[in-house]
Structure formats: structure tokens, C-alpha cells
């Protein structure tokens, strides 16, 4: 009996099924499920029972794109691994995959070790790492093999940010060829950074310094061009490709075309592109700086094509690209020069609720909600079925979700370590009530009961979504 938890009476929703079932948890894992009211369910016994009547019982969210404590533009993302993972738990996310950074002139190992040091003992929920590859050379390529063997199986490259993270086509091709051999997955920030820098310089010379110009110079066509180029380079290398934070309908069209050709190409979008637009970037009094991120917010008409891509599975994952910078003292670094505004938005706490609102609004089904927020990111990054579903043997990362509770998103009530909300005043239906991480309550009926250090590092296998 000791250590058993029973969740009774809820509607269990996974990517494939919806069933009124009781869930038995033992030793941090799902031990059994049985349809509610059946003799099998009535036979379940536990020392702790959670009544989920009238609620959803869903897998904990898997956010495969976060940046805790990321150095950027002379400052650091404002969430630490402690504050960021606590906020994630409040929002129903029980696993993050963050990006360790290789600095130019340094090894992958140095970057990975630095991120282990930041995260270890500080996380409220489980975590893994991707590796940002900023310096492709023979040593880096060898290190990629070693990292895949030890569970860091995805590598991010940038076609943007010349002089910081940028890789040229030759470096990208070499890394893709290596990943084709070792089973790793290349994640691409697809924007033509060389061309964008020209447009930035020209805009500033014309005196166009406000935040809205950030979106105007980072043109949708330059996202589409880079997406197309990344797809063709991956095709030449014989490697799969995952394009991060897709924001433009023209980029979605490139992904759809490649997938129609049968290429192993995948796309992720983020809540900000589904719910926000250039209208936010144009807010007066420098308020628009709160919405500066890259890829940038697009005009509203792009949203319909992103939703369509999520329904047709030309986009498979919704992650947050959570990279918060406070308005006061951080975003303000770019007053008078939009190119100096730190790029990034807070969102790790909002994703599951915003996507439930998309269910309420009729954009996606309940099962698709779980698929794009839990199951597919777990499969894409080698953590399924340990993460991303509710099934015997899976980690008991489970959220009791009240589909009828109403809330208003606000910086006053959120738990992210940032002084504004990108969704201030937005009314949503649905709210996290209780969160279990490996069977341990992190959020208990809207109270934080977790602790820093509960979350453990999770090595990952290679992409499970290819087959």
C-alpha cells in the first residue's frame, strides 16, 4: 500500500484515446488503468486517492524548447532552472528540454557541463538537453557522436545571428551528414540572418528604431527561404530535419511541400504565433518590445495557416521557446534601437492552457491537444512512452485539469520570473488543478507542493517519430 496513489473518476485523455478510467500509480509510475466503476477499478487500493470527477486526467506536458538562464544580448533570460521549472509545473508541464550552448572556440562538452551545473539540484520537474552547435569543426563532429550515445540526441543550428550562433551552409551540411550517421536530429532556426542584418542596418539608417520594425525586417520570405534551404541541405545529407518556431505561412508551405515529397521533415510552432501578432509589436510607448522574439510575430492572417498546419500534421509540435526578459532593465536595452532588444518571450506556464483554449475555440480536438503538447514532443525527442502518455510503465507525470475553470492571464498571478505577461488580460477556459511528477505532487489543488531538486536529468533516445 505504501507509495500508491489512485486517481479516480476522471476522463483520461491521451493522444489516441479518451476513457473514463481510474489510474493506479506505484513507485512513481503508472501501474494500471481500468474503466471507472468496473470490478477491476474497484479492486484498486492506495494510501492516497485523488478525486478527478468532472476533470480531465492528462499526461504532463512536454515542452521541448526552453531557454532558462540563456545569455543573450548582454543579459540573461530572467528565469532560472528553479523558477522556470516551477512555473512550468504550475502550467501543467512536467518535462522540459532546454538548450545547452556551445560557445565559439569551445567544445560541446564544456557547454553541456555548464548547463548541467545550472540545472542540477534546482529543477521542480524532469529535464533534458538539446545542444546548440555554434562552431562546427572536426572535433565538434566527433563530439556529436559521443553526445548521442549519452542521451543528448538533438542539435540546434542557426541560419540567423551572424557572429553569435550562425552557421553557414557548409557547416550545416557537415553537421547534418554527421547526424545522418549517428541518429541525431538537427533542429534549425531558419531565418536568413545575413540578409536580415542588411535590412536591420538600412532600417536604423532611416530612423526606423521602434520595436515594430523588428518584425518588418525579419521578413516572412526570409524565413521561408531559409526553411527551403535547410530542407534541401537535409535532403542532400540524407538526414531528418526539425524546424523550430515556425511563424510564417510561407514557411509552413515549404514544410508541407517537403512532407508531400515524403521527406522526414518536421515543424514546431509556438503559442505566440497562434495567439499574438504584429499588432502587439506595434503597441505604443515601447510596449511592443515585450513581444520581440525571433522568428518574429507575424500579421494575423498567418495564424489560420499555422492552425491548419497543426490539423494536417504539417506542424507536429507546439513548444514555447520560453526565453523571458523583463521589460524594466532588459527589454529597455533596445530603446532607440530595436536590434538591441533581447529576443524572447515568457510562456512556459501558459502553453497547456492556451492550447486547451484552442480546443474550446474549435481549432483542434482534445486528443490533438495532448498529441502536440505531450506525446509528439516526447516521441520526437526520444522520451516516449516514459513521457507523454498515461499507460502502464510510463512515468506518473499526470495533470488533473479542470476544463470548466475560468482564468485571466496576468503578470500579477503568474509564476514566471518576469515582470509582464505576453497574454495580459486574456480570458481562458480550463486550468491546472493538481500536477504529479513521477507520482509526487508538485501542484496540489492550486498549491505548490514541489521542491527544487525533485526534477532529474532525463537522457533521451534518438527520434522515435521517424517510423
Radius of gyration, in angstroms, nearest whole number: 21 Å
Q: Considering DSSP H and I runs of 4 or more, what fraction of the residues is helical?
A: 25-40%
Instruction: Characterize the biggest β-sheet.
Output: 9 strands, mixed
Q: Low-confidence parts lasting 5 or more residues at pLDDT below 50? A: none
Averaged pLDDT, please? 97
- Helical segment count: 14
Shape: globular
Count every beta strand, where a strand is a DSSP E run of 2 or more residues: 19
Structural class: alpha/beta
For the terminal residues, how far apart are their CA atoms? 40 Å
Q: What fraction of the residues are assigned to beta strands by DSSP?
A: 15-25%
Descriptive report:
The protein is α/β, with parallel strands linked by helices and 467 residues long. It is 31% helix and 23% strand. The chain is built from 14 helices and 19 strands. The protein has helices spanning 39-42, 81-90, 108-119, 138-149, 169-182, 193-205, 212-217, 220-237, 249-260, 271-275, 278-281, 301-312, 351-360, 366-380, and strands at residues 4-13, 18-26, 29-35, 48-51, 56-59, 61-66, 71-72, 75-76, 93-101, 126-132, 154-158, 185-189, 241-243, 265-269, 317-318, 398-408, 427-437, 440-444, 447-448. The strands form three sheets. Strands 1, 2, 3, 4, 5, 16, 17, 18 and 19 form a nine-stranded mixed beta sheet that branches. The protein has an eight-stranded parallel beta sheet with strand order 6-9-10-11-12-13-14-15. A two-stranded antiparallel ribbon has the order 7-8. Helix 3 links the parallel strand 9 and strand 10. The model has no long low-confidence stretch (mean pLDDT 97).
Amino acid at each position: 500500500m505504501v507509495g500508491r496513489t489512485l486517481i479516480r473518476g476522471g476522463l483520461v485523455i491521451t493522444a489516441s484515446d479518451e476513457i473514463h478510467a481510474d489510474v493506479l500509480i506505484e513507485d512513481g509510475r503508472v501501474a494500471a488503468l481500468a474503466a471507472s466503476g468496473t470490478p477491476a477499478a474497484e479492486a484498486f487500493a492506495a494510501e492516497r486517492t485523488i478525486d478527478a470527477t468532472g476533470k480531465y486526467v492528462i499526461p504532463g506536458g512536454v515542452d521541448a524548447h526552453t531557454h532558462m538562464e540563456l545569455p543573450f544580448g548582454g543579459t540573461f533570460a530572467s528565469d532560472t532552472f528553479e523558477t522556470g521549472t516551477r512555473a512550468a509545473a504550475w502550467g501543467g508541464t512536467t518535462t522540459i528540454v532546454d538548450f545547452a550552448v556551445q560557445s565559439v572556440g569551445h567544445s560541446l562538452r564544456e557547454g553541456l557541463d555548464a548547463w548541467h551545473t545550472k540545472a542540477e539540484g534546482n529543477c521542480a520537474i524532469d529535464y533534458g538537453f538539446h545542444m546548440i552547435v555554434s562552431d562546427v569543426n572536426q572535433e565538434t563532429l566527433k563530439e556529436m557522436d559521443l553526445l548521442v550515445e549519452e542521451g543528448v540526441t538533438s542539435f540546434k543550428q542557426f541560419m540567423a545571428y551572424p557572429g553569435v550562433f550562425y552557421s553557414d551552409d557548409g557547416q550545416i551540411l557537415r553537421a547534418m551528414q554527421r547526424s545522418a550517421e549517428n541518429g541525431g536530429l538537427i533542429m534549425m532556426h531558419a531565418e536568413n540572418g545575413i540578409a536580415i542584418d542588411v535590412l536591420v542596418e538600412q532600417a536604423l539608417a532611416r530612423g526606423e528604431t521602434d520595436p515594430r520594425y523588428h518584425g518588418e525586417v525579419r521578413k516572412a520570405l526570409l524565413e521561408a527561404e531559409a526553411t527551403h534551404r535547410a530542407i534541401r541541405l537535409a535532403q542532400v545529407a540524407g538526414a531528418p530535419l526539425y524546424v523550430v518556431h515556425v511563424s510564417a505561412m510561407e514557411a509552413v508551405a515549404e514544410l508541407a511541400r517537403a512532407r508531400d515529397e515524403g521527406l522526414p521533415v518536421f515543424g514546431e510552432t509556438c503559442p505566440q504565433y497562434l495567439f499574438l501578432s504584429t499588432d502587439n509589436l506595434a503597441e505604443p510607448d515601447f510596449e511592443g518590445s515585450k513581444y520581440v522574439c525571433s522568428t518574429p510575430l507575424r500579421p494575423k492572417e498567418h495564424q489560420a495557416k499555422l492552425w491548419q498546419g497543426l490539423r494536417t500534421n504539417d506542424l507536429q509540435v507546439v513548444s514555447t521557446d520560453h526565453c523571458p526578459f523583463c521589460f524594466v532593465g532588459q527589454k529597455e536595452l533596445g530603446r532607440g534601437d530595436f536590434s538591441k532588444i533581447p529576443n524572447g518571450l515568457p510562456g512556459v506556464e501558459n502553453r497547456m492552457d492556451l492550447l486547451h483554449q484552442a480546443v474550446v475555440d474549435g481549432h483542434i480536438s482534445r486528443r490533438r491537444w495532448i498529441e502536440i503538447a505531450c506525446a509528439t514532443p516526447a516521441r520526437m525527442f526520444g522520451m516516449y512512452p516514459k513521457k507523454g502518455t498515461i499507460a502502464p510503465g510510463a512515468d506518473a507525470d499526470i495533470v488533473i485539469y479542470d476544463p470548466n475553470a475560468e482564468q485571466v492571464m496576468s503578470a500579477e498571478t503568474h509564476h514566471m520570473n518576469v515582470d509582464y505577461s505576453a497574454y495580459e488580460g486574456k480570458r481562458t477556459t480550463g486550468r491546472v488543478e493538481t500536477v504529479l511528477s513521477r507520482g509526487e505532487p508538485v501542484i496540489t489543488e492550486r498549491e505548490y507542493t514541489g521542491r527544487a531538486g525533485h526534477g532529474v536529468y532525463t537522457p533521451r533516445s534518438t527520434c522515435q517519430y521517424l517510423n
